[in-house]
């Protein structure tokens, strides 16, 4: 399926690397949490570069997903394309499979496929990040809430959203361990 390949390729564009290179700052994979994502860029280089990273990571897969919708693929097939975007972000072959944790990319994918679920999860993420000041807690909670929100707002996509959730939770194993030890870095 060509859209799956395009999904993976678009997902493998790591926004943090592009943003940091254009800004002339260090590679986020070499400092902080060593993760090329919003939270690490925020801690290392400030909110403007972090917001630019978030924007790139959220929108990069949207064109291929819109293509899947325009081709009237069934929800499960749209989900496979979305999952390819997330796998590309998490495991980009040209970066030795060292990608991000797929939270911003999952938001972008869900914004196209299940906009209501994406907005519920983004609101929950924002509230928890503001209150708890830990991106991992906000990410884990919003990912866990996504299947429940999809039951209510996008029942045809529940299986798809569960797959996205499992990937995001799996990418946060080290964060879960650090949270258990009490040494997860704050925002």
Automatic annotation (TrEMBL):
It catalyses: an acyl phosphate + sn-glycerol 3-phosphate = a 1-acyl-sn-glycero-3-phosphate + phosphate. The chain crosses the membrane at residues 6-27, 106-128, 148-169. It is found in: Cell membrane. Keywords: Acyltransferase, Cell membrane, Lipid biosynthesis, Lipid metabolism, Membrane, Phospholipid biosynthesis, Phospholipid metabolism, Transferase, Transmembrane, Transmembrane helix. One of its GO terms (biological process) is phospholipid biosynthetic process. Pathway: Lipid metabolism; phospholipid metabolism. Its EC number is 2.3.1.275. It is an enzyme of class 2 (transferase). It comes from the Bacteria. Catalyzes the transfer of an acyl group from acyl-phosphate (acyl-PO(4)) to glycerol-3-phosphate (G3P) to form lysophosphatidic acid (LPA). This enzyme utilizes acyl-phosphate as fatty acyl donor, but not acyl-CoA or acyl-ACP. Probably interacts with PlsX. This is Glycerol-3-phosphate acyltransferase.
């Amino acid at each position: 399926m060509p859209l799956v390949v395009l999904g993976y390729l678009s997902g493998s564009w790591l926004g943090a690397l592009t943003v940091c290179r254009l800004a002339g700052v260090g590679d986020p994979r070499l400092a902080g949490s060593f993760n090329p994502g919003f939270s690490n860029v925020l801690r290392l280089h400030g909110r403007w570069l972090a917001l630019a990273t978030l924007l790139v990571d959220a929108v990069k897969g949207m064109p291929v997903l819109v293509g899947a919708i325009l081709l009237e693929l069934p929800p499960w097939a749209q989900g496979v394309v979305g999952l390819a975007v997330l796998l590309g972000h998490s495991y980009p072959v040209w970066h030795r499979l060292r990608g991000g944790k797929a939270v911003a990319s999952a938001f972008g994918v869900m914004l196209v496929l299940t906009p209501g679920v994406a907005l519920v999860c983004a609101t929950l993420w924002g509230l928890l990040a503001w209150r708890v000041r830990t991106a991992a807690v906000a990410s884990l909670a919003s990912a866990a809430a996504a299947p429940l929100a999809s039951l209510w707002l996008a029942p045809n996509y529940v299986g798809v959203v569960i797959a996205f959730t499992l990937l995001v939770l799996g990418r946060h194993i080290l964060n879960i361990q650090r949270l258990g030890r009490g040494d997860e870095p704050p925002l």
